[in-house]
From TrEMBL:
Cofactor: Co(2+); NAD(+)
Species whose genome carries this gene: Flavobacterium bernardetii
Keywords: Cobalt, Lyase, Metal-binding, NAD, Nucleotide-binding, Zinc
Enzyme Commission number(s) of this protein: 4.2.3.4
NCBIfam families per UniProt: aroB (TIGR01357)
Keyword check for Disulfide bond: no
SUPFAM superfamilies, per the entry: Dehydroquinate synthase-like
Domain 3-dehydroquinate synthase C-terminal as annotated: residue spans: 176-319
Top enzyme category: lyase
MF-aspect GO terms: 3-dehydroquinate synthase activity
The keyword Zinc is annotated on this UniProt entry: yes
Domain 3-dehydroquinate synthase N-terminal: 62-174
Name under which the protein is recorded: 3-dehydroquinate synthase
């Protein structure tokens, strides 16, 4: 597959990724390579990656614990200290080998260490391939509030090696699929239509669909890196989805949801809001709800859950002047940004979601 050109970097695929990395490491004068992994990618992805990375530069492996709960400033502090102890300097490079937590957090650590060192994102989950690793957003959570601390700085490059998907459990694959479905809903109805027939796809089809999803996100981000306009469209499903994800993460009596599982609920809820604001038709809403619920199990909410989720909306980082901002569908394949919605409609959206 040909590389995708972003604003100031390129996205490489499969075998071309290793060719690119080998040439880069020969051409640049890096003092050390630091590979950031979690427990899963250390075991399942790192051996294959290193065996295909010929270089004479010293390599240090840094491992963190798995999970969104570790995407915080305390982990960053540990990593900054570790980099110092291992002799990192401004000519070091960090390779972030993992899912969205690794690329988000690793990018932030690299951007802030000695005022910035080069970093490359090497996503190993479907979610990080089509979303987290693309677009230059790097950051961490503040308590249970998603992505409150961070910077926008693009990586040196992104390399997508779809072989890593062979190591993923089915729920992680579905989590990434949520973002692919979102890209179709907000930008390209033809792409959405392709994703409606998932049972008929083979591995080669998936590689092509992954690249198309990345192309959609890259086109949006390239127009609006700092999220003042069209990039807000990528927030569809995320205003309520992030609040749901945060609530389930902090609740002792709830099982934490994967990002894509929460976003899937958010997309159904926000599609309902789009319907009630006369932006999409009943037929479009029924199709969206059917397709997403066919892939993702329904999540249960009680009245207390719903009220606490609504209370969390005010902390969404996209809000402006104290108002909760939604990106809603204008029809399948189009988006309308900066929409405000009454809480009464949000309650109706949950009520509709919970119906059989």
């Amino acid at each position: 597959m040909d590389p995708i050109q972003a604003n100031n970097y390129s996205i490489y695929f499969n075998d071309d990724s290793f060719v690119y990395l080998e040439n880069l490491l020969k051409a640049e004068t890096y003092s050390k390579i630091f590979v950031l992994v979690d427990e899963n990618t250390n075991e399942n992805c790192l051996p294959y990656f290193l065996s295909n990375l010929p270089t004479e530069i010293d390599i240090e492996i840094i491992e963190i614990e798995v999970g969104e709960e570790n995407k915080n400033i305390y982990t960053c502090l540990d990593l900054w200290h570790t980099l110092i102890e291992l002799g990192a300097d401004r000519k070091s490079i960090m390779l972030n080998l993992g899912g969205g937590v690794i690329t988000d957090l690793g990018g932030f650590v690299a951007c802030t260490f000695k005022r910035g060192i080069d970093f490359i994102n090497i996503p190993t989950t479907l979610l990080s391939m089509v979303d987290a690793s693309i677009g230059g957003k790097n950051g961490v959570d503040l308590g249970n509030l998603k992505n409150q601390i961070g910077v926008i700085k693009e990586p040196k490059s992104v390399v997508v090696i779809t072989k890593f998907l062979e190591t993923l459990p089915s729920n992680e694959m579905r989590s990434g699929l949520a973002e692919m479905l979102k890209h179709g809903l907000i930008y390209d109805k033809k792409y959405w239509d392709k994703l409606k027939n998932l049972n008929d796809l083979n591995t080669d089809d998936l590689d092509v669909l992954i690249k198309e999803s990345i192309e959609i996100k890259n086109k949006i981000v390239s127009e609006d890196l700092t999220e003042n306009g069209i990039r807000k469209s990528l927030n569809f499903g995320h205003t309520l989805g992030h609040a749901i994800e945060s609530y389930f993460l902090e609740s002792e009596d709830k099982k934490a949801l994967l990002h894509g599982e929460a976003i899937a609920v958010g997309m159904i809820l926000e599609s309902f809001l789009s319907l009630k604001l006369n932006l999409i038709s009943n037929e479009e809403y029924a199709e969206i709800k059917y397709i997403i619920t066919d892939v993702f199990e329904k999540v249960d909410f009680n009245d207390v859950d719903i009220q606490k989720i609504i209370d969390l909306l005010i902390f969404d980082k996209k809000n402006e002047f104290g108002k909760v901002q939604f990106a809603l569908l204008n029809k399948i394949g189009e988006i309308k940004i900066d929409q405000t919605v009454d809480n009464s409609l949000i309650l109706l959206a949950f009520e509709d979601y919970l119906q059989n």
